[in-house]
Design brief:
The structure is a single chain. The chain is α+β, with helices and mostly antiparallel strands and about 550 residues long. About 65% of the residues lie in helices and about 10% in strands. The chain is built from 22 helices and 12 strands. The strands form 4 sheets. Strands 1, 2, 3, 4 and 6 form a 5-stranded antiparallel sheet that branches. A 3-stranded mixed sheet has the order 5-9-8. Helix 4 packs antiparallel against helix 5 and helix 15 runs parallel beside helix 21.
Length: about 550
């Protein structure tokens, strides 16, 4: 230490006062640059497009924001865990007295607690919960059912804030563009809410307004999720980067915050399905739409829930013929909506390859002219041609009970992972679906039951579930659930198969010819007359 002290003393004595002054200036310059860098980081706005590095830079300078939110999230899930634990103890004692209480009830209860937790944590978690509700292959059917209720229970934000956002985005007072806007929102979603209005030109419109400060809330929560996945990756010693899942979610959710993209999606969907007159999408009014405000044509029509209520509710003491006719007519309209919904799903799947990415009942309308209207185009799913034909083949193979060819089709759809034991998958599918009974050559079973059996095999073999696959299956199962309210005997396969047959008989391509050969010819290239007769009979119903 003494040597070092002597060395420093010698250096300082050799430096002149000017040298020391210059050194001080350089130190002050470095310090000023550091302060400038910090000021730049602090004043840097939240990125418009999701970029993990930019987001990390933004929130690294705001550790208090992240810490407070982490505390809030941790408290919410800790409280949920205590509730689940407590309810689990109660169910244990109840089940010891009543053996009819099963695991499904416990799973549904867990789903309800999870749903309430997501609601309390705000828009990002609500959106994640809604996404999870479409993945029964991951979380189970009962939890999925509970989370699907998130679509109906989202609280609105104050009207005054909504009007301020409209004025900020459009650049003028609301009265400049709209002669009327409803006092209360007609619908509230995780990212925004919708008002019914009328333009100064007298056109009825739906005005969608984004929740205030939403970008900051969403990006902050994605950043926290990314931190959590990074920590999990280190603890679990995983080679794959789990943070990529958060990045994918971030890109999707931040993309949904730009309503100009939703406007483009709606226009693309409308143009792609214009050849099918029973499918309708609302027109976008571009001059009244911005990043946080979207103005579209008002789609007058009945929601599936309205039709269910009318077709199942009977007024007390009102058994008149008029009331019965009204109820019967509501059932007819509901069944027509479901049949057209099934066909619309298949058209999106097999014809256009452009799928509505949020096909829950709240986004459907049945118009007075018998059209099926689609709402909310925040996300669209686009399919490749090879996946379209593989999906077509899979429907045919389920109907024909050919499980080995079904597994082949699932492999072509990138559902079955490479290296999976195909023979064992085929045997398990045969065990799960072999008990399905057929009526007139078509499975006499609910689609949701077949779907549940496929999910169980998918979980066992860790199948990949591409977005289009889960969307279509979920959409068809949802439509079947609506139909049962009007007709308990409704079968999705019976409604869908005629369209599939028509597609195979009229689309003269190599892919459809190959599928057709697999149906009408056996492995020895002999005609299967029974299946050919079914095809012709089913095709004649169109």
């Amino acid at each position: 230490m003494a040597c070092i002290g002597n060395l420093l003393e010698r250096i300082l004595t050799e430096l002149s006062g000017v040298d020391l002054f210059v050194a001080d200036l350089k130190a002050m310059e470095a310090y000023a640059y550091y302060l400038y860098y910090l000021a730049k980081l602090w004043t840097k706005p939240l990125p418009e497009v999701y970029d993990p590095e930019d987001v990390a830079d933004y929130f690294t300078c705001r550790p208090h924001v992240v810490a407070l939110r982490l505390l809030e999230v941790f408290s919410a899930f800790a409280s949920a865990a205590i509730r689940i634990r407590t309810s689990g103890v109660k169910k244990f004692y109840m089940s010891s007295m009543d053996k009819s209480i099963g695991g499904d009830v416990a799973q549904y209860g867990f789903g309800l607690v999870l749903k309430e937790t997501m609601l309390n944590l705000g828009p990002t978690f609500i959106k994640v919960g809604q996404s999870l509700s479409t993945r029964p292959d991951i979380i189970g059917s009962e939890i999925s059912k509970a989370l699907s209720e998130l679509h109906d229970q989202i609280p609105p934000f104050p009207r005054t804030l909504a009007m301020e956002i409209i004025e900020d985005e459009l650049g003028s007072p609301v009265e400049t563009y709209f002669s009327h806007l409803s006092e209360e929102p007609v619908a509230a979603a995780s990212f925004g809410q919708v008002y019914k209005g009328c333009t100064v030109e007298g056109i009825n419109v739906a005005v969608k307004v984004q929740r205030p400060n939403l970008r900051h809330v969403v990006v902050r929560d994605i950043y926290i999720l990314r931190l959590g996945l990074g920590l999990l990756q280190k603890i679990a010693k995983r080679k794959s980067d789990l943070r990529l899942y958060a990045d994918e979610l971030g890109k999707g959710l931040v993309g949904e915050l730009d309503y100009t993209l939703e406007a483009a999606n709606a226009s693309e969907f409308m143009q792609a399905h214009a050849p099918f007159p029973f499918i309708r999408a609302p027109k976008v009014y571009q001059h009244l739409s911005r990043k946080r405000v979207l103005t579209m044509e008002w789609m007058a029509g009945e929601s599936p829930r309205d039709l269910i209520d009318m077709s199942t509710t009977v007024s007390i003491g009102d058994g008149s013929d008029y009331s019965k006719r009204k109820q019967s007519d509501a059932r007819r309209r509901l069944l027509d909506l479901v049949n057209k919904g099934v066909e619309a799903s298949l058209i999106q799947l097999l014809e256009t390859g452009l799928l509505h990415a949020d096909p829950h009942p709240g986004n459907l309308r049945y118009t007075s002219t018998g059209e099926i209207g689609f709402l909310d185009f925040g996300l669209l799913c686009r399919m490749q041609k090879k996946h379209q034909f593989a999906m077509l083949a899979s429907i045919v193979h389920i109907v024909n009970g050919d499980w080995s060819l079904l597994v082949q089709a699932l492999t072509e759809m990138d559902v079955v992972r490479p290296g999976t034991n195909i023979r064992r998958v085929t045997m398990d599918l045969e065990d799960a679906l072999g008990e399905v009974e057929f009526k007139d050559g078509i499975p006499d079973v609910k689609f949701s039951k077949v779907l549940g059996k496929i999910w169980s095999v998918a979980l066992k073999y860790h199948f990949r579930m591409p977005p289009y696959y889960t969307l279509v299956l979920r959409s068809l199962a949802s439509l079947e659930g609506l139909a049962v309210a009007a007709d308990p005997k409704f079968k999705t396969f019976e409604a869908a198969y005629p369209f599939v047959v028509r597609k195979l008989l009229t689309d003269n391509t190599a892919a459809t010819r190959r599928i057709l050969h697999l149906v009408v010819l056996n492995r020895r290239k002999e005609f299967q007359w029974q299946k050919l007769a079914l095809f012709l009979r089913t095709g004649a119903t169109r």
